Amino acid sequence: xxxxxxxxxxxxxxxxxxxxxxxxxxxxxxxxxxxxxxxxxxxxxxxxxxxxxxxxxxxxxxxxxxxxxxxxxxxxxxxx
Amino acid sequence: xxxxxxxxxxxxxxxxxxxxxxxxxxxxxxxxxxxxxxxxxxxxxxxxxxxxxxxxxxxxxxxxxxxxxxxxxxxxxxxxxxxxxxxxxxxxxxxxxxxxxxxxxxxxxxxxxxxxxxxxxxxxxxxxxxxxxxxxxxxxxxxxxxxxxxxxxxxxxxxxxxxxxxxxxxxxxxxxxxxxxxxxxxxxxxxxxxxxxxxxxxxxxxxxxxxxxxxxxxxxxxxxxxxxxxxxxxxxxxxxxxxxxxxxxxxxxxxxxxxxxxxxxxxxxxxxxxxxxxxxxxxxxxxxxxxxxxxxxxxxxxxxxxxxxxxxxxxxxxxxxxxxxxxxxxxxxxxxxxxxxxxxxxxxxxxx
Lengths: 80, 352
What we know:
heterodimer, A: mainly beta, Ribosomal Protein L9, domain 1, three-stranded antiparallel sheet, 5% helix, globular, B: mainly alpha, Heme Oxygenase, Chain A, 65% helix, 0% strand
């Protein structure tokens, strides 16, 4: 499949956070913007971060493991 | 940066030459080269040699912000580049030996084909995880006195007031995914377009909060050789294209060993009653470096190795050298503090 690169991407990091890059907003359920200091963010996936929704690296201390390895060979490589 | 006090014959000779015009005193330059050649075999431990480390710092500084009153043309003076190379060669050799001692290359570098970018990131995360040196951050969080917090900032100030600059040298030496990754990290380091959010500016604010002088290089005379060596290592890796693997590994491991320690540093300063104005630098790094460690491990270091598999060993060398040298700095500081001494070389300079 030949697809145009999307406006944003979410990188699913093995044993780590979701890196979100591109054009997006992070909002509360009622739509208010959450404080955000940078363009590309890491969102907590292990549940143990002290600064949720952002990652603070705690996944490394608790030995968080994602359930199955991300096998890039099975996916379609996005356009750079 | 203001001109530091010489720490021995090499730095004295160098600063003497820098006071003049480039090419103004060829005899003095030749005799400095002879002096360096004669002195180097006498240096027992170049990483902890104040004279050599200060000379290197000054030579590198010509490529950064420069030295007060020194003619900018010295930067590319062939005689000084020659001196720098004479000093860099044994320094790099010592760094490789320290890295080898910390984690032997046979344990560091997989014998099979070079891993893909996820594999490189996993190797680097593994090195960071296995680092079990003494923890300065736990001490700062729990025990450090106000005076020790100041010392901690003074050691860090040699680099942090130009934070990110040594890695920026690598940008034009990289291509594609690795370059895009480095630029993304560096843009964040430099505040994403907001000068007040630059990490160096946040660090300066923290220093001012403790009543310290935040002028770049103000405390060079105050810190021991090992603090200078830690910064010179970055300049060595950053300014030599052939070591682009090492600077990528250096940045990756810096990012990977940062979030948790910065959380603890922040706690240490809050314990002494400092608010977000002072702890902002540390709080920022908890969040930023959790992003950067992923990008630096996978896209910068991993992307570089996928393009140039032959650089894997240098990526891992750069990463291991950081752990080895910064562990020495930590041991120096903790040994002083636990024995009731100052970890600094001299007392604080009197305020200007």
